[in-house]
Amino acid sequence: MLDDSDTTDIHPLFAGAPSSTEFRKLRKRLVRETRNAIDDYGMARPGDRWLVCLSGGKDSYTLLAILHELKWRGFLPVDLLACNLDQGQPGFPATVLPEFLSKRQVAHRIEYQDTYSIVTDKVPEGRTYCALCSRLRRGNLYRIAREEGCSAVVLGHHRDDILETFFMNLFHGGRLATMPPKLLNEQGDLTVLRPLAYVAEDDCDRFARAMNYPIIPCDLCGSQEGLQRVQVKRILDEWEKRSPGRRQVMFRALMNIRPSHMLDPKLFDFVNLFPDGSASSADLPPNLEH
């Protein structure tokens, strides 16, 4: 896909990219994995417009660059609009992203909505902000997508985010669920896409650092200790340290689900599972069950 001799035909988002073999391999891997996820989950329809959410973190920078790379190469037949939602956090460097996007010729919209004040006012002291913050952010992004004629809201969640969410639901929510690569919103008019579903967090970090993108930390959530996600990340890090490759094995398990080997009667007809077709106790009158 990327010819090693090709050094001039690049999108401005890749201006100044390292010329090392290691970086080129990383770039190719990111492009391949993102394209595979888009194809596997049928994310792209020719002529659609995507709202690509840019927070200023390493993941969203990687998402933006790789999507533009795919479009630049002719593999993504959609229109891309980058969007940053400035949520009014104290000290947020409001000029960084507009300057970055304008310099690199990326179509964008910057939206200011002070959700920070709402979150800090409504959430009791000592509780985490994430749930309310994400709900307010999501509502604004849906609104912007509709205003801009976009069919999809595109997020930078990667493989490790998906794994962490699975274990958070397992440990704390009592359910087997995570963030799917493709989701229809409750209103049924927008899809939520995660094209980096196959991409490792470490690769996002290496890519954004190599490109020297201006990373903006999330001080609202990052300053709070004891978050469930942080705890789960530490567990996964320890597993990966002891058994390299464990994360990828667990991620593959999320794509290889066997309902008949789980315990959810809503997903598999256990009640009528008999070799002779005889009735189960659930089909018998109450006085015959015992």
UniProtKB/TrEMBL annotation:
Q: Does the keyword Transferase apply?
A: yes
- Keyword Cell membrane set for record: no
Binding residues for [4Fe-4S] cluster, per the UniProt record?
130, 133, 221
Pathway(s) where this gene product acts: tRNA modification
Could you tell me which Pfam families the record lists for this protein? Answer: ATP_bind_3
Major localisation: cytoplasm
> How is the cofactor bound, in the record's words?
Binds 1 [4Fe-4S] cluster per subunit. The cluster is chelated by three Cys residues, the fourth Fe has a free coordination site that may bind a sulfur atom transferred from the persulfide of IscS.
Q: What residue stretches are annotated with the tRNA(Ile)-lysidine/2-thiocytidine synthase N-terminal domain?
A: 50-211
Query: Which reaction is the catalytic activity of this chain?
Result: cytidine(32) in tRNA + S-sulfanyl-L-cysteinyl-[cysteine desulfurase] + AH2 + ATP = 2-thiocytidine(32) in tRNA + L-cysteinyl-[cysteine desulfurase] + A + AMP + diphosphate + H(+)
Miscellaneous note of the record? The thiolation reaction likely consists of two steps: a first activation step by ATP to form an adenylated intermediate of the target base of tRNA, and a second nucleophilic substitution step of the sulfur (S) atom supplied by the hydrosulfide attached to the Fe-S cluster.
Function of the molecule: Catalyzes the ATP-dependent 2-thiolation of cytidine in position 32 of tRNA, to form 2-thiocytidine (s(2)C32). The sulfur atoms are provided by the cysteine/cysteine desulfurase (IscS) system.
Name this protein carries in UniProt:
tRNA-cytidine(32) 2-sulfurtransferase
- Native organism: Paracoccus onchidii
Q: What is the lineage of its organism?
A: Bacteria, Pseudomonadati, Pseudomonadota, Alphaproteobacteria, Rhodobacterales
Source gene?
ttcA
